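Pasting as-is:
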Amino acid sequence: MDLVFETYLLAPEASDFPIVDSPVWIFGKSYSIHYDLEELRRSVSTCMWITYRKNFPSIGETHMTSDKGWGCMIRCGQMLVAKTLLLRHLGPQWHWDPQNKDQGYLKIVSMFADERSAPLSIHQIATNGAMLGKPIGSWLGPNTVIQAVKKILITEPTLDLHVHVAMDSIVVKSEVRAGCLAEHHGQPRSLPGRTDPRWKPLLLVVPLRLGLSELNPVYIPGLKAVFESPQNVGIMGGRPNHALFFIGYAENEVLYLDPHTVQPAVTIGSKIYSTEEAADETYHIQKPGRMNFLAMDPSVAVCFYVNSESDFDNLCTKLNERFTSSVGLFEVCESRSTFSSGNIASFIHSGEDDDEGFEILG
């Protein structure tokens, strides 16, 4: 069939994605809009879509029963961690469907329930954010969200995940290794799902500022390189006044999941009843949002999941190779003493837990 004619036939059905001949990239995997549309939708729906909720138990002493208007970046952080935990504990071949009752999946989704006892709930993240100087009900920047999540994961060793935040646009390999080696954490030599028993699986977060008030277009090839990395688990960011979780791109458009939908708080349980199945479906969506790269807010946090030391070394090598042909987003060096600033994105950082220069309102 003539390609132009085939594209015309597909256009109404594939309106949720741009009709392009070049690959569509989602979490480091490429798809053809002409031949892989259902697989592409399945990849999007497998990622948990976590949004504003209402009518949940109040957070702390605030009497707040909804996070509408202030919890969007927390929800983006939850989507990032959920994607990472699904990879860590279920693997890259696992996919969600409405009838799926996988106990590993149900355990993970329960950790994000909107209740005080859930370890990765908005209750826990907001409370930990308050300990970091951001009162419950105030908007949290992405750095505060990640720092709060990091504190929580330290108290949840069964999740077997180490978080490293690479500040100042520098990934220092020796510092990452020190945090991920199992001996450093006193972990057993082998845990289920590890490809390297010495290495504690890593969520690597690199906060960046890619322009002053607008995204500088010279950084777009670097962002595309991030989305094409097999280790990529999304980018926390947004457009001005609107936090979003970016999951991939198609030509000049970036694809995202938007937390700005208010849904009732739900209980999924074991998915024995139809009401629980319906509740689970509120955490998944097939259709991503999309917008031009240039509409992105310049403050972002690029994120990677790394399951072994060799995987980490491969990520660093591949990104350095891509960044040599374009403006690099960040620098990778072996140690602080070997760092030499190049043409990398700048990040204004004035304190260990400061969102200054790395903040999107909304």
